[in-house]
User: What shape does this take?
Amino acid sequence: MFELYKSGGKFCEASIIPWILFIACSCFIILGWGIYQYGFEPDTLMENLKQKQHRGVCSRCHQKMPEDAEILTNFLPSQQTFQTPAQQQGQLQYQEQHSVSPRAGSRIPVGNSLHAIEDTFKQAIATTHPSVVNIKSYRRNGSTNQNGSYESVGSGLIVSTQGHILTNYHVIANSENIFVTVHGNGQKTYNAWIYDHHVDTDLTLLKLETDDIFTPSVLGDSDLAETGDFVLAIGSPFGIEQTVTSGIVSGLRKTLTIEGVTYENMIQTDAPINRGSSGGPLVNIDGEVIGINTAIYAPTGVFSGTAFAMPVNRIKRFLVSHNIVPTQNYIQAGFTAPSSNIQGWLGVEIQPVDQTTALHLGLPYIGGVLVNRVSKNSPASKEGVNRGDVILKIDGKEIIDIDAFDSLITVKKPEEEVTLLIFSNKKLREFLITLSQFPS
Assistant: This one.
């Protein structure tokens, strides 16, 4: 072989040392890549190399798999699915000997992400659970129990340290006796009475008959909710207390009518909600309440994948009108409690403005709220506001939808002046109106 290096009967002076160094460096690089890719454990390295060698071959029938099936195997969690009981036992013994749990030993990043989501959900549940209550009310119309009265089951939310409970009006409608079970520091049941209710918005505020101090829920910002967000629903479906289900925000600003009550700008979710869940919170992964579970679409009477929650920002305005300030964050956001529970009255019935309405009225854009009816002898009628007008601004603040209108009007008091910018007969007009007290 040395004849290859001879030149004119003499050995070539070229050295083979650089070639030896090149080959050695290549070996180190390949070995380092293998350790980085598969780990340093010899058994693990050999197992992965064998899997690499037999990739594309079914471990059961040893036949060539289709290309799309081969791609699918790259996303399987592990080969444990096709292991025999003896192989599984051997793997468990190896993990015990090396103090590696199946969870901790996972080399798949997806597993770690799922465990992180689990921990986030658990923290959100722990934050919200103490403020979720079970409500039982008894009435004289409905299904009878052994005592001859009728029981209604629902859920609610603690919104003040003094024991104010927020729930849906239909949970306690026509009730004679109301009992609320709190699960904070141990389970305890209290008598409750109706502090106030609002049939049109299906909201009710209860007050517990006690001087105990409670932990109120943390109210978030429903305007920040987006389709696809993870959510949790907590309540008492079918009377099973403190039940947690999960899902996502399926849609926003949904409108539906149930038993004559129209619910607008609702949050749609696929989190399972059933009878008894009404009044319970819809919670984001930060443990903040973004809605109150209110209704389900259920042709069969049970959950079918579509539920609706009332946005918490609308509920905040209801609470502010009763001098209940939920959280410090709510104050920092610019909401303040009025000095009186009596709201100012404008005297208009409104509805959303859609594309058809905007085109019909000649409105240059979709926005504001349409005046559908004006009450007689109301402040609005006295100043010349008419049916078919579109209210675009209140005190210089733009009205995007009904929620925006309510947020500005509900904090006004009787004898307070408001400036309305109205689109009427294809012209812009400005009205200065003094609100009055709602007629008794």
In short: Residues 81 and 334 are 56 Å apart (CA to CA). The longest strand covers residues 243-258. Confidence is low (pLDDT under 50) at residues 1-12, 53-108, 326-341.
